């Protein structure tokens, strides 16, 4: 804990020294004299129609193109890690590692992620790997914290990613190339314009390659996207599509110190850096979405969206103990449509009525591999289901000082049945620059396809009789703007709970299967302050406290050791403990200097508190107890320097983890195939790296 306070104090002292001249005198008029943190910012995601931030009962985060590019973040996950209430999780930051976003301590499948209106959560796991989405093509990200199931179905937090579109009377052209540590290079190109008065396009393409910071952590990725738009007064239509093709290594944990290279049949299976040198993965994703919206009259508006997403993932694994393995090809397909109408019967009231339909398809082709890595047996499993949702939301503002919101959704799922999800909100605006928000609503998380239909084998099987996780989410937020929006403060307190928590547990034959257990809950607080620009300097600080607990089975006796082969009459108890992989404390700071000559310097500091990971451990046969392994707290700092030259050229240098701090993000057991000794090892975070880029923008 001392490290946390040291980091906070150091950053505040550094920030104070940088800001002191600015705070002692009148505000300077830098490149952005208006400021970026105002309560009048518009957001669509929270209520599915444009609303001012100060009129929304949820706590929200809004990032536009300028703020996204301020820091040295290379991925969406890295950038969102700077925001309050957001925890970015990745398996050691290696190049192809999946990157999840957790909001306020909830699991990754509780965060629904949309790309141009298309839901891109994996059907297999319920998660979204935001690391696959290129940063340079994003125009805006809107994040809504708190109850979000009313408008979007399964999930409790919503991230809406909107890619760039053309600008009227202006042509956009950008070409960029960069090279950095670990033999990393990236090239990208963008172009957008209106071809006629009403019709335009925006296209982008990227290529990224890196060897990674340890053995088998390489990445090769190509992606492209296109957006077509048609605009007329009171009418907008868009068609967006994207394609991604990537391959990557899956290095596993870092083995214990002194580990020697290990070979099976002449193939090297692991070394002292990575426990899996032959494991690889690949993704081929495609997405298309179409949206039509308009407001033909003052009292009526509409918005219709249709989308199709197809995600193909291949995972190839080999096991060091005998060379065998498996080769999985998983295909997820989502065909969806959603629409709503907005009614304005009175100047003080609004009514939204909508519906949503999703057709979901899942297929897994699996090849078991023999000791030589050759196919030994094949099977194919598939499943198909649908979901339907009907929702209504009403707003009433009797005066400029208060606004009330209430809504309900009826969700029908082909497997677990129906859910009714209400939500209530209240907004109080005592002044133009002050807002007090209250939000309370129900949420639910549907079982994933892996939970329901995982192919039965000797170790695992799905469970089609699962119930959905459900619970309540409440928060209160106060936001205040000062000095012509040069200072923005936000404080939030939140609390949520989950019933019928889904967890994979062993049955009497030792086969793991998901079951509904008791649940888990969390309470916490968020604080955010953004200051500037004062004399070209802007400071953003956030702090998040999360107290999360989960209930799990407490094993006290196992008749056959571990893995458990439990007798049918085996007795266990429920135990409550600190939630796995959830830090209690997070601190984040971003200090930016930007002058009129085109120089930008951004320094980022992040502190993540310690975490635990629960696992069963055999003490003395036949007794087994739950052990909490601990991941140490850590902090890291990044810096980005960018200079504009000759109006259209940008030169940038980014340093990641510039103090080369070591840390682990996950823990997993490594077993020596010669001695059968098991050791808990970590997925290490990346050390120091540099990346330089040259960009031409027109």
**How many strands, which pairing sense, and closed or not: the largest β-sheet?**
22 strands, antiparallel, barrel
Helical segment tally? Answer: 5
Quote the average pLDDT: 86
* DSSP summary, beta strand count: 40
Please give the share of residues in helix. under 10%
Briefly note the CATH topology name. Maltoporin, Chain A
CATH class, please? Answer: Mainly Beta
Question: What oligomeric state do the depicted chains represent?
Answer: single chain
CATH superfamily: TonB-dependent receptor, beta-barrel domain
What percentage of the residues does DSSP assign to strands (E)?
A: over 45%
Distance between the termini: 48 Å
| C-alpha-based Rg, rounded | 26 Å
Q: Which consecutive residue ranges, at least 5 long each, have pLDDT under 50?
A: 1-36, 556-566
For the record, the count of structural domains works out to: 1
- What is the correct CATH architecture? Beta Barrel
Give the class from helix and strand content and strand pairing: mainly beta
